[in-house]
Automatic annotation (TrEMBL):
UniProt GO BP: trehalose biosynthetic process
Subcellular location: Cytoplasm
NCBIfam families, per the entry: trehalose_TreZ
Name this protein carries in UniProt: Malto-oligosyltrehalose trehalohydrolase
EC number(s) given by UniProt: 3.2.1.141
Annotated source species: Streptomyces liliifuscus
SUPFAM superfamilies documented for this protein: (Trans)glycosidases (SSF51445), E set domains (SSF81296)
Pfam families (UniProt xref): Alpha-amylase (PF00128), DUF3459 (PF11941)
Length: 581
């Protein structure tokens, strides 16, 4: 078997494979690359020593059976016999479901999660978005401090379990998206700097030195990231990738890394004959992220829209601190602006940033499906001090309104696991660092962060306490009981409407019309012949919808269609979807 590794600054490279040790030779055709052959098969352990140093895992390791600090293992991807013929499922018309493997079930494995995919089919979602799966220290964590960007966290089940999960999802008609982290690697178990200039001091991120995308040696670093992305799509048959915090990918080159990545994915999609897509998490409010390359954009296919979330959150909760401040001044106006313009910050002043931020979308060119809309995500829940969901503080009626605005709005909807039944479990920040000093630093940092916002230390869960993860696991006894069952039925009803009402999949943002009353807290919008009205106030609201005949498609509380005066009487903290025409 041929082994290879990029180590441009090394004088000697040694391969340790099973019980053999042999020197690698410089590749005469690729500067900085070392190659050699050794007997190996699926499961064979191996590693590399740089200049007679310690044996380290392969930067392109496909498996880390003993965790990030252990030896790598060979993976023969041809051994798995795929059961499902899959022609792909694109993003237009999608409803996504964000899922964390370690807490979706108490078992916290890919196989256990696969056993619960039938719930998602019944719910009506089209794609499962898995939070990061790369290896990280310990057993439990969010996954955003992973290393070995080509491998699968072993406690989740490793490579074979991931293939079984994707196979089962495709068998059920579900697309699968993977959250990948290119902007940093975890501090523990990260051996890339020993091999080459994977990081640079030219730029810095909240996590330290930036990944090297534009400094000397960056050609190979970019190829490393591109190869990892394509490997997930090829070897595991993912339908798309969600790219974490692309605003932290610092790149001054003429061809931005994201443009190069989108071109590579589009080419691979053509070769495979199935749709593939990239979804950015972007804090830039920059239309170029989702503008096609032929129009001088970066060519990503969609992005998360935090502006919609922030506007909706302030309207529902009244919170107006931190980055919510600008949205909280006129919450319903903020919701209305995002529903019709996509971005709230489109060149406006951001008090949180202390400067102008964003740029307007061209509504004649940008399809609404390229923005993902959501009421809750792992970030917006887990980065709260106690990981409390909206269900911890809002009435059932307001939860129903949040669902209506998300699932009938113009954006591609995304749910966070458990949201669909108003889960009573929190989703908290948890880690399982094996380095005691790092564990203590994370614990102190978490408490210090929230102490600055008035939280008592004892009220901030200890990330390292196993109970923190355990509290965050979904309770699968909830969905069929009481209020949880009613909320679940509401989500199913709204998702079914989205799939059956053509106006709800219309990608034209310019055709969305919104009216609202900030004082009485109602908002209504029109998409074709569909009218959606929400009343966030406690008192009934009189909402003018026009005199065209109407019928109720879905209602949280019983409601009569508008009378001859065209006014809808909507109960407090309730919502309705109507068809007029």
């Amino acid at each position: 078997m041929q082994f290879e590794v990029w180590a441009p600054q090394a004088d000697r490279m040694t391969l340790h494979c099973a019980d053999t040790t042999r020197a690698l030779e410089p590749d005469p055709e690729r500067v900085g690359w070392w190659t050699g052959e050794a007997e190996a098969q699926d499961g064979t352990r191996y590693g590399f020593a740089v200049d007679d140093g310690p044996v380290l895992p392969d930067p392109r390791s496909r498996r880390q059976p003993d965790g990030p600090d252990g030896l790598s293992a060979v993976v023969d991807h041809e051994r798995y016999a795929w059961r499902t013929e899959w022609s792909g499922r694109g993003l237009p018309g999608a409803v996504l479901y964000e899922l964390h493997v370690g807490t979706y079930t108490r078992e916290g494995t890919l196989d256990a999660a696969a056993g619960r995919l039938g719930h998602l089919v019944e719910l009506g979602v089209t794609h499962v978005e898995l939070m990061p799966l790369c290896p990280f220290p310990g057993r439990h964590g969010w996954g955003y401090e992973g290393v070995s960007l080509w491998a699968v966290h072993e406690p989740y089940g490793g490579p074979e379990a991931l293939k079984r999960f994707v196979d089962r999802a495709h068998e059920l008609g579900l697309g699968v998206v993977l959250d990948v982290v290119h902007n940093h690697l975890g501090p523990s178990g990260n051996y890339l700097p020993a091999f080459g200039p994977y990081f640079t001091e030219t730029h810095h991120t909240p996590w330290g030195s930036a990944v090297n995308l534009d400094a000397p040696g960056s050609d190979e670093v970019r190829a490393f990231l591109l190869g990892s992305a394509l490997a997930w799509l090829r070897d595991y048959r993912f339908d798309g990738l969600r790219l974490d915090a692309v605003h932290a990918l610092h790149d001054t080159r003429a061809c931005h890394f994201l443009e190069e990545l989108s071109a590579a994915v589009d080419t691979f999609a053509e070769e495979q004959g199935r749709p593939l897509f990239l979804i950015a998490e972007s804090d830039l409010a920059d239309p170029r992220v989702i503008t096609p390359r032929k129009e001088n954009g970066l060519g990503l296919h969609a992005q998360w829209n935090d502006d919609f979330h922030h506007a909706l959150h302030t309207a529902l909760t009244g919170e107006a601190q931190g980055y919510y401040a600008d949205f909280g001044r006129s919450p319903l106006a903020s919701v209305a602006k995002t529903l019709t313009s996509g971005f709230f910050h489109d060149g406006t002043y951001s008090s949180f940033r202390g400067r102008r931020h964003g740029r307007p979308l061209d509504l004649t060119k940008v399809s609404a499906h390229r923005l993902l809309g959501y009421a809750q995500t792992h970030d917006q829940i887990g980065n709260r001090a106690q990981g409390d969901r909206l269900s911890a503080s809002l009435s059932p009626g307001l939860l129903a309104c949040a669902a209506a605005l998300t699932l009938t709005g113009p954006f591609t909807p995304m749910l966070f696991m458990g949201e669909e039944w108003a889960a009573g479990t929190p989703w908290q920040f948890f880690t399982d660092h094996t380095d005691p000093e790092l564990a203590e630093a994370v614990r102190r940092g978490r408490r210090r962060e929230f102490a600055a916002h008035g939280w008592a230390e004892e009220d901030v869960p200890d990330p390292q306490d196993p109970a923190t993860r355990d509290r965050s696991c979904l309770d699968w006894s909830e969905p069929e009981n009481g209020l949880h069952a009613r909320v679940l039925d509401w989500y199913r009803e709204l998702i079914a409407l989205r799939h059956t009402q053509p106006d709800l999949s219309d990608p034209d943002l310019a055709d969305v019309k919104v009216a609202f009353d900030e004082r009485t807290r109602w908002l209504a919008f029109r998409r074709g012949d569909v009218r959606v009205a929400v009343n966030l106030g406690k008192d009934p609201a009189a909402i003018p919808l026009g005199t065209r005949p109407a019928r109720v498609l879905a209602a949280w509380e019983p409601v009569e269609v508008p009378g001859e005066d065209g006014v809808l009487s909507l109960p407090g903290e309730s919502c309705v979807v109507l068809l007029q025409g």
